[in-house]
Amino acid sequence: MTHLNKDKIISLLPHREPMLLIDELYDIKKLSSATAVVNVKKDSFFVQGHFPGNPVMPGVLIVESFGQAAAALTAHGLDKSTYENKLVFLMGVEKARFRNPVIPDCELILKIEAIRSHGRVWKYKGEAFVNDLKMADAIWSATIVDKK
């Protein structure tokens, strides 16, 4: 399967509304790369307070979107018995650059890639685009842990 809709993403991630940010994952190369879609809407939960009259998607939520996309890519690629009863936690963000503001209503496209993995620790990089204009990029790491 090279396309995950929101229902399939929900089956892979513990995130729920309003914190489930990614709407679909496609062009999936098992445990390697994928493209995610975040539909940034005028009624997104952060719009009312960030910033009234001039809404912008917070950079931290762009990084969270990268993390969710990477977690979905990883969960989808691993054997279910390996991923069952596990969670993926963000460990660190080495670099994050915000080049242009992400303004609702738009489709934020995330291109993510797994750079490497060592046991339960994974490192990723990603770029975010709106209409082919780069909005942000980041390098981050995450770990897979047992649910408690």
Helical percent range? 10-25%
Q: Order of strands across the biggest sheet?
A: 1-2-3-5-6-7-4
**CA-atom Rg in angstroms:** 15 Å
Shape: globular
CATH-assigned homologous superfamily: Hotdog Thioesterase
- Our count of domains comes out at 1
What is the terminal-to-terminal distance?
Answer: 30 Å
CATH topology name, in short, is Thiol Ester Dehydrase, Chain A
What is the averaged pLDDT score? 94
Q: Number of DSSP helices?
A: 3
CATH architecture: Roll
Strand segment count: 7
- Helix and strand run: EHEEHHEEEE
CATH class: Alpha Beta
Beta-strand residue fraction: 35-45%
Q: Which stretches are poorly predicted, pLDDT < 50 over at least 5 residues? A: none
Helical/strand content category: alpha+beta
Largest sheet: 7 strands, antiparallel
Write structural notes for this entry.
With 148 residues, the chain is α+β, with helices and mostly antiparallel strands. The protein has one domain: Hotdog Thioesterase (Thiol Ester Dehydrase, Chain A, Roll). It is 20% helix and 45% strand. A seven-stranded antiparallel beta sheet has the order 1-2-3-5-6-7-4. A hairpin with a 2-residue loop joins β6 (121-130) and β7. It is globular, with a radius of gyration of 15 Å.
